[in-house]
Design goal:
mainly alpha, Four Helix Bundle (Hemerythrin (Met), subunit A), 74% helix, 0% strand, binds ascorbic acid
């Protein structure tokens, strides 16, 4: 009985921890995972950008909903860049991601921070705040792409 409880507890912990540590069966899965998170993020970021740039009318609720998704997605890609995922699939990832881990992690942390600010700005319903946060987030995307993504 005791053993059963330990096993059940361990299984529960693994289940609860899974989304955060995102273990992958094979490198291709990690690559697909990070690309998917980044793709979903880009779609929702684009919707916020359309409003920040005046291409579509500003709707505070739509902006806030999309920015929320951007902020949530920003937390995911890091787990997909683990050791052994340098190659496989159709990746544009540069080797510097793994040789300059601290810098790359710093970029991801900055993305998480800036997208949280974006979501907060969107919630205020103030278009100028949204524009400022959008620009800061876009700069953060670009800095990492320039340093760590092949053309
Ligand atoms: C986007 C998108 C990116 C970033 C980047 C910002 O909308 O898909 O990858 O913004 O272009 O410079």
């Amino acid at each position: 009985m005791k053993a059963f409880i330990y096993i059940a507890a361990a299984a529960t912990l693994v289940t609860l921890a899974a989304p955060a540590s995102a273990q992958f069966a094979k490198p291709e899965d990690a690559i697909k995972y990070r690309q998917s998170a980044l793709f979903v993020m880009s779609q929702h970021f684009g919707r916020v950008g359309a409003m920040a740039n005046g291409r579509v009318p500003f709707d505070a609720k739509v902006a806030a909903d999309n920015a929320e998704v951007v902020a949530a997605m920003a937390k995911l890609p890091w787990a997909g860049f683990g050791p052994g995922t340098e190659k496989g699939g159709n990746t544009k990832a540069k080797p510097e991601i793994w040789t300059e881990q601290a810098k790359f992690k710093g970029g991801n942390d900055k993305l998480v921070a800036e997208t949280a600010k974006l979501a907060a700005a969107a919630k205020t319903g103030n278009l100028d705040d949204l524009k400022t946060a959008f620009a800061a987030t876009a700069d953060t995307c670009k800095a990492c792409h320039d340093a760590f993504r092949n053309k």
